[in-house]
Amino acid sequence: xxxxxxxxxxxxxxxxxxxxxxxxxxxxxxxxxxxxxxxxxxxxxxxxxxxxxxxxxxxxxxxxxxxxxxxxxxxxxxxxxxxxxxxxxxxxxxxxxxxxxxxxxxxxxxxxxxxxxxxxxxxxxxxxxxxxxxxxxxxxxxxxxxxxxxxxxxxxxxxxxxxxxxxxxxxxxxxxxxxxxxxxxxxxxxxxxxxxxxxxxxxxxxxxxxxxxxxxxxxxxxxxxxxxxxxxxxxxxxxxxxxxxxxxxxxxxxxxxxxxxxxxxxxxxxxxxxxxxx
Amino acid sequence: xxxxxxxxxxxxxxxxxxxxxxxxxxxxxxxxxxxxxxxxxxxxxxxxxxxxxxxxxxxxxxxxxxxxxxxxxxxxxxxxxxxxxxxxxxxxxxxxxxxxxxxxxxxxxxxxxxxxxxxxxxxxxxxxxxxxxxxxxxxxxxxxxxxxxxxxxxxxxxxxxxxxxxxxxxxxxxxxxxxxxxxxxxxxxxxxxxxxxxxxxxxxxxxxxxxxxxxxxxxxxxxxxxxxxxxxxxxxxxxxxxxxxxxxxxxxxxxxxxxxxxxxxxxxxxxxxxxxxxxxxxxxxxxxxxxxxxxxxxxxxxxxxxxxxxxxxxxxxxxxxxxxxxxxxxxxxxxxxxxxxxxxxxxxxxxxxxxxxxxxxxxxxxxxxxxxxxxxxxxxxxxxxxxxxxxxxxxxxxxxxxxxxxxxxxxxxxxxxxxxxxxxxxxxxxxxxxxxxxxxxxxxxxxxxxxxxxxxxxxxxxxxxxxxxxxxxxxxxxxxxxxxxxxxxxxxxxxxxxxxxxxxxxxxxxxxxxxxxxxxxxxxxxxxxxxxxxxxxxxxxxxxxxxxxxxxxxxxxxxxxxxxxxxxxxxxxxxxxxxxxxxxxxxxxxxxxxxxxxxxxxxxxxxxxxxxxxxxxxxxxxxxxxxxxxxxxxxxxxxxxxxxxxxxxxxxxxxxxxxxxxxxxxxxxxxxxxxxxxxxxxxxxxxxxxxxxxxxxxxxxxxxxxxxxxxxxxxxxxxxxxxxxxxxxxxxxxxxxxxxxxxxxxxxxxxxxxxxxxxxxxxxxxxxxxxxxxxxxxxxxxxxxxxxxxxxxxxxxxxxxxxxxxxxxxxxxxxxxxxxxxxxxxxxxxxxxxxxxxxxxxxxxxxxx
Amino acid sequence: xxxxxxxxxxxxxxxxxxxxxxxxxxxxxxxxxxxxxxxxxxxxxxxxxxxxxxxxxxxxxxxxxxxxxxxxxxxxxxxxxxxxxxxxxxxxxxxxxxxxxxxxxxxxxxxxxxxxxxxxxxxxxxxxxxxxxxxxxxxxxxxxxxxxxxxxxxxxxxxxxxxxxxxxxxxxxxxxxxxxxxxxxxxxxxxxxxxxxxxxxxxxxxxxxxxxxxxxxxxxxxxxxxxxxxxxxxxxxxxxxxxxxxxxxxxxxxxxxxxxxxxxxxxxxxxxxxxxxxxxxxxxxxxxxxxxxxxxxxx
Lengths: 278, 849, 299
Ligand SMILES: Nc1nc2c(c(=O)[nH]1)N[C@H]1C(S)=C(S)[C@@H](COP(=O)(O)OP(=O)(O)OC[C@H]3O[C@@H](n4cnc5c(=O)[nH]c(N)nc54)[C@H](O)[C@@H]3O)O[C@H]1N2
Ligand SMILES: Nc1nc2c(c(=O)[nH]1)N[C@H]1C(S)=C(S)[C@@H](COP(=O)(O)OP(=O)(O)OC[C@H]3O[C@@H](n4cnc5c(=O)[nH]c(N)nc54)[C@H](O)[C@@H]3O)O[C@H]1N2
Ligand code: SF4
Ligand code: SF4
Ligand code: SF4
Ligand code: SF4
Ligand code: SF4
Ligand SMILES: [Mo]
What we know:
The structure holds three protein chains of three kinds.
Chain A: E1 10-15, H1 24-33, E2 60-68, E3 92-100, H2 108-112, E4 118-120, E5 126-128, H3 139-142, E6 149-150, E7 157-158, H4 164-168, H5 174-178, E8 184-188, H6 189-205, E9 212-214, E10 227-231, H7 251-272
Parallel strand pairs in A: 1-10
Antiparallel strand pairs in A: 1-8, 2-3, 4-5, 6-7, 9-10
Chain B: H1 9-17, E1 23-25, H2 31-34, E2 38-40, H3 47-60, H4 66-72, H5 86-89, E3 96-97, E4 102-103, E5 115-116, E6 156-157, H6 173-181, H7 186-193, H8 197-209, E7 219-221, H9 223-226, H10 231-244, E8 255-257, H11 266-269, E9 276-277, E10 281-282, H12 292-300, H13 309-321, H14 345-353, E11 359-363, H15 367-370, H16 374-381, E12 386-391, H17 396-403, H18 405-409, E13 420-425, E14 434-437, E15 442-446, H19 459-473, H20 481-484, E16 492-493, E17 498-499, H21 501-509, E18 511-512, E19 515-516, E20 565-566, E21 595-597, E22 602-604, E23 683-684, E24 702-707, H22 723-726, E25 733-736, H23 738-744, E26 751-755, E27 760-767, E28 774-776, E29 779-781, E30 783-787, E31 808-809, E32 821-827, H24 835-848
Helix pairs in contact in B: 3-7, 3-8, 3-10, 7-8, 14-16
Chain C: H1 25-48, H2 52-77, H3 82-85, H4 95-119, H5 123-149, H6 154-157, H7 163-182, H8 189-211, H9 218-221, H10 223-243, H11 250-280, H12 283-297
Helix pairs in contact in C: 1-2, 1-5, 1-7, 1-11, 2-4, 2-7, 4-5, 5-7, 7-8, 7-11, 8-10, 10-11
The complex binds ligand MGD (2 copies), iron/sulfur cluster (SF4) (5 copies) and molybdenum atom.
One iron/sulfur cluster binds near residues 102, 107 and 126 of chain A.
C-alpha cells in the first residue's frame, strides 16, 4: 500500500451506455461485503428493477428505464429502436445504469457525522467505520444523493465502502471486477476523467448526442464525485438529483444565523427583564 | 445473449466499440436489444422466413461470395431429375409418406451419386405414433434419416456428383436454391414475421455489405432458434446464408451456438444423449449392428476424417474394456448397449406413464419444472418404482409427490403415489475438480475450492462408487461380463474418497504403447491405442493437463492458444482452411488467418490448421484413396466426405434437404407459403395428458414464448433457492404490450391467468412497450413473454411456464417447441383446486367444438 | 410561487432518504431542548433580579427539559452507550456534534442548578452552574435549527435562514409558557414579554416558511405539517393574546402558557413533518435544482 498522501485518489467511472443490466455488480457487492438480502420478495412493477434504490442493504442498484425513443438523428444512433424506421411508432429505449455511493469530494455524510465514524481514506473514498457509528442517522438526510441509510435490524448506517479492504490489498472493487462489459471502470480518478471525456466525444461523434457526464466536474456542488457517470438522459430520469450541493456549503451561514438568533434570544430575555418590576 | 451469456457478451460490446454493427433478432426487446444498433422484432417461430428472405436477397442480387461458393461448397452439384421441391408440391418435398409422416430421401440425392447409410443409423421411431410398431422389428430402416447419427460429419456420398461450375444448370444446387427461396421476398418476410419491409432491407444491406473478401459477419444463436419443431432447419438456413457469403472457417465469421449449462457442450462431446457415444460416434442399433464391421462399414469406406471411424471406435472400446477387448472378440463391441428406438427424455417419460420404465436417475435435471408439459413429467415420476435425484437442492422433481400442482388440484394423492424417492445431495462445481467445455469447445479445468458439505458428494464419486459396488456384487453370470470386464479403477483422494478427476481426463485423452497420446491422428484400429473420446485426444498431451493452461492474454497473440485447450487439436476456428483462397493465399490482408507457405511446405498462421498441415493447395487425391487422403488441397470441410460445405443436404435430415417455412405447431395464423401448415415431419406425442391447441384457434388467440432472465437459472434450483438472486426477480411474471393489456384489462403489477389446453397458470403482469403487437398476415398478433424459471419450491415461488406447453418436437433432435405456442390470457388469479382443471376443460371443449 | 411543473423522475421514487430519526423522539428532543435553553437563561436573570419563583421554574424546566432531551436522543440511537460516541470528537461541521457538546454540559449544569435549587444545598455552585447554563441556553435554542437545516432535506435546507429564527422564537414562547403555567403570577412579567417577542419572531418566521421558499414552502402549507403549523400559529397568537393578562389573571396565564407549549410542540412536529414530506416527492429535489441550473445557465 502506498504511503499516506502519495496514493492518488481512486474512483469509478460508470459508463451506462454499455451497461447490460445484468446486476452482477449488485450480487458481487453483496457476496463480497456480506450485505444482507433485503428480505422482501415483491415485484416492484418497474421494468426489471426490483431493488428500487440504494440503501443499507443495496450498495449497488441497477436502474432500468423504459422510455419512448426521442432523440432524432440522421446518423446511426448506436441505440436500437423497435418497430419500423419511418413508422409513426418511435420505438423504445431501455436505459440501464448501475448506481453507487458517489464518494463525494465534499461529502455531506462525512461532514455531519458527529462521531467521526465516516472518514476519508487514503484512496480519497468515504467509508463508515462500523464500530464507531452510533446510529445517530445524521448522515442519512445529509446525503444529497439519498445513498446512505440506517439498517433497521442493526441501527447503524451502511453504504458502499468502495471495497476499502480490497483496495488495501491491491485489488479492484468486487462490483467492477464482476462487471462483464466494463460499464463500471475503476481507477485513478484523474485518469478516469480523461477516459470519460474521450468516451463522450466518441459517442457524440458516432451520433449519440445525448451522452453526457454526471458528477465529473470538480466545480460542481459537491466538488465532483469520486464515482461519476456517463448518462444517456437527464440525471433525474435515473433517480439522480440534477444539481446536488453539499449541505455544509451553507453551514457557515447557518452557524452565523444561529449565533445571531441565539444572541437575539439572550437579548430578548435580557430586555424582558429590563422593565420595572411590578 | 446479454441476458443469458452476459460474460461472453463482453466481446460483443468490445466488437461494438471497435465499430461492429449489432443486430438483434428477437420477438422481445431484451437487454441485448438495449445495446444493439438494430432490434428486429419478429413473430416467434418465423425465423426461417426471415433468414430465407436474406438468402433470397443474396441470390437474387448476386451478392454471394462466388469464388468461395464455387471452390468450397456443393453449389455446382447437380440433383436427380425426380427431385421435387416444396415449391412444386405445396409444402412437402418429394418422397413424403403422409401415413408415416416420413420421407424417403432417395429423390434428394445428387445425380449419379447415391448417399450411403450412415453408421449406426437407426429407426426414426416415435412412440405413440404411426410407425412405432416397428420398434422392436427394425424392418423399415430409414437408413439415412437421422441427423444425430452422423456425428460431426454429414451423410456419406459415395461418388463425386456431377457438377456445373457455371452454376447455370437448372438442377444444380445453386439454381435449386435460387428457385426455392425466390418467394421469400421482403414483402413476404414482412407478412410472415411482422417485420417492417424497410427494416428488413436495412438488415439485408448490412449483412451483405459486411461479408465477402474483406469482411465477415457472424451469427450467434441459442435456443431461440432451436426450440422449434423446425429447429435444426433454422440452423440450416443460417448455414446456407453464411456459406453463400463466405463466412465460415474465417475469423469473425461462423454460426456460433451459445450453449446452455456450464458444460452442456461437454455433455454432447462426452454425451449424456441416448443416441451418441463419446466424440459423436453414433450408438449402435440392436438389430442393424451385430458386429463392429457392420457398425463401421458405412464410414470405413468413407472419405474425410470420418473415414477413420474404426480407429475411433476401437480406441473407445479399448478404453472401456482394456485388456479384455481384443481383435479376436471384436474389441468387445457386443458389450456396448444398443438402441431399440427413441429413448429420448420425452419418449422415456411416456414409457413411465405407460408403466414400462420403472426406475429413473435425475442427476442435475429438474424436469418437473424445466421440461415441456410439467404435468406429463410429474405423472411419469409418480408412476415409478424408484427415483434417484442427485441435486444441490431439494428440487420440485424430488418433491412433486407432496407439493406438485396436481396434488393441489386433487389429480394426484400423495398416499397413492408408489414412487420411492431417494434424494442424494450433490457437490457443486466449486466442491470438486473437473473441466467445463464451453461454447467455443474450450476445455477449462477447475480446481476444488472447498470440500462438499455434509453428505454431498461429486457425481464422479457417485458413479464410481456405484459402479464399484455393482461390480463387487455381480457374480459370474455371462450376461454381467460387460460390467466385470470394465476398466474401473481410479485413484481416490481426499476425505471422501473422491476419484481423481485428472485420472479420468487421462483416460479420456487416451494412451498408446508409448504413453499418453497427443493427437487423434495417432489413433489405431488394431487395439494398440485406447482413447475415451477421440476429439478430446491431446488434452493431456505430454501427460500435462492442457485444459488447465491459463496464459494471460497479454502474453500471447489474439488467437490465445495458451488459454485452456480446444477440441480438436487445440484449434480455435474450425474449417480454417477456408480462411485462405483455393491457392492458399488469405482472402484479404484484413481477414487473414492461415496461408500456405510453399517454401516450408506447410500451412502457417496463428491458429492450428484444421487441415493436414503439409497438404498443399494443389494436392489432388489419388484414385480410390480413403478417409482424409481422399480429400484434395482445396477441400476445407474435412469431416464431410466431399470436403465441401453443403448448401443442399442430399441426405441426413428427417425434414427436408432445404429449410422451408412452416408455422409452429400451435400458431394463430395460416402458413403464407403453402397449404401445408406445420412441419410435415414434426414429432408429436399422443397422450391424454398432452393435448394440443388446434392451430388458428380463436380460443387461444395469442402467441406466447418462453425464455430466461439473467437473474435466474433454468428450472430455478440454482437461483430461486438463493436470496441474492431471488430478490432480483422475486416473482413469476408475464410481459405484455400496453395494447394487449388494454384489450384484456391487464394492469401493470396485477395478476393474469394464462390458459392453454394443458393447464392455466397465473403470473404477475409487466406491461411494457418492449413487447409490440405485430402485423402478421393482415392481422394484429399479440405476443406474451413468459420466463420459465418458477416452480413451487424455493424462496421465490410461482407457477411453471412449462405447465402451459405441450410436447411437440423437432424430428431430427427431439427438442420440444418451447419458443412458440398459443394461449389465452385474462386478468386475475387462476382458480384453485378442482376448479382449475374444470376451467381448462371448458376451454378445451370450446376449442375443439 | 412555482407551479408543480412537468418534471422527470425514476418511477416517482424519492431521490433522497427520509430523515432516519424516530418520531416522536426527535421532534420532542427539538422542543425540549429549546424550552430548556430559554428557560435556563430566564432562570439566571430571574435569580439576579430576585424572582425566586420564576428562577425555580426556569431551572427545573432547563434541567428536566434537557435531560429528557438527552433521553429522547438516546432512545433514538437505540443503545445508551452509543451516546458516548458523540463525545469522541468535536466537529464544527457537524451540528449534531456541536449540539452534543452544547447539550451535554448544558444538561449537566442545568441539573446541578436544579438540584441545588430543590435541595437548597451548595447554593454558590448552583448559582454558578445556573449561570453557565444561562450562557449556553440561547445556543440550545437555535443549534437544533442548524441541525435540521444542515441536511439535504429540501424544506429544511432551503429554510436555513428562517429555521433559527423560528426555533429561537418558539423556544422563547415555550419557556414563557412554562413560566406562566408554573411561576407565581407576580413574577411572570419578563416571561410574558419574552413570550411576546418570541411570538412575533415565530409568526414572522412561520409565514416566511410557508410562502418565501418557493416550491419547498409547499410542504409547510399542506398535509399534516400544514395542519400542525396552522395550529401552532393559532396557539401562539392565542397564547400571546392571553399572556397580556397573565400577570393579573392566573387562569389566563395558565391558558396562555399551555397554548405556548402546545404551539411549541406543534411547531417542531410540523417542521419535522414538512421536512419528511419534502424528501418523499422527488419534485422538491428536481424542480428547484433544475431551476437553479437554468438560472446558472442564464448567467
Ligand atoms: N442467466 C441465465 N443464463 C443462462 C441460462 C439461464 O437460465 N439463466 N440458461 C443457460 C441455458 S441452459 C441455455 S440453453 C442458454 C439459452 O440462451 P438463450 O437462447 O439466449 O435463452 P432464452 O432466453 O431461452 O431465449 C433467447 C431468446 O429467444 C427469443 N425467442 C423466442 N422465440 C424466438 C424465435 O422464434 N425466434 C427468435 N429469433 N428468437 C426467439 C426469446 O425472446 C429470448 O429472448 O442460456 C444459458 N445461460
Ligand atoms: N419452456 C421452456 N422450457 C425449457 C427451456 C426454455 O427455453 N423454455 N429451455 C430448456 C433448456 S435449453 C434446458 S438446458 C433445460 C434445463 O432444465 P433442467 O436441466 O431440468 O433444469 P436446471 O434447473 O438447470 O437443473 C439442473 C439441476 O442441476 C443441479 N446441479 C447443479 N450442479 C450440479 C452438479 O454438479 N451435480 C448434480 N448432480 N446436480 C447439479 C442444480 O441444482 C439444478 O437443480 O430447460 C429446458 N426447458
Ligand atoms: S454520495 Fe452520499 S453517502 Fe456517498 S459520499 Fe456523497 S454524501 Fe456520502
Ligand atoms: S449514523 Fe453513524 S455514520 Fe451516520 S452520522 Fe451517525 S455516526 Fe456517523
Ligand atoms: S465498491 Fe465494493 S462496496 Fe462499493 S458497490 Fe462496489 S462492491 Fe459494493
Ligand atoms: S455488472 Fe456492469 S453491465 Fe451488469 S448491471 Fe452492473 S454495471 Fe451493468
Ligand atoms: S453464469 Fe457463468 S457461464 Fe453464465 S455468463 Fe456467468 S460466468 Fe458465464
Ligand atoms: Mo440449455
